[in-house]
Amino acid sequence: MVLSTPKRLITAVVVFAGVMSNIASDAGYVVLVPLGAIVFLSFKRHPIAGLAAAFAGVSGGFSANLLVGYIRSTNLGNHKRSINSRWY
C-alpha cells in the first residue's frame, strides 16, 4: 500500500497508517515509526521527516482514531460505571 503511493502523497499515507496503528496497541510506536523513516528514505526524502510523520500519526491516533481501539473500550467500561454510581 505505502510503496505504491505517489510521491506527493507519501506523507499523508504514513500519517494515516500511524493513526490506524492504534488498533495494534503500542506496536505503532515500535514498528511504524522506524518504518516511516525507511519508507521516506526509499522515496528519496529525509528519513527524519518520515520518523516525525509516523510519530505524529501514531500519537494522534491514540486520541482520535477512526475505529475503536483498546483504550476506548477500556475507558467505556469506566465511563458506564461512573454514570451508574451515586456519588451524592
Write structural notes for this entry.
This protein has one domain. Helix 2 packs antiparallel against helix 3. The protein contains 4 helices and no strands. By secondary structure, it is mainly alpha-helical. The mean pLDDT is 82.
Q: Keywords for this structure?
A:
88 residues, 0% strand, 67% helix
Low-confidence stretches: none
Q: Helix amount, in percent? A: 55-70%
- Cα separation of the termini: 54 Å
Structural class: mainly alpha
- Total count of helical runs of at least 4 residues: 4
Estimate nothing, just give the exact number of structural domains: 1
Order of helices and strands: HHHH
Write down how many β-strands occur, each being a DSSP E stretch of 2 or more residues.
0
- What portion of residues belong to β-strands? under 5%
The biggest beta sheet is recorded as: none
Q: How much is the radius of gyration in Å?
A: 17 Å
Task: Give average pLDDT, whole number.
Answer: 82
Shape: elongated
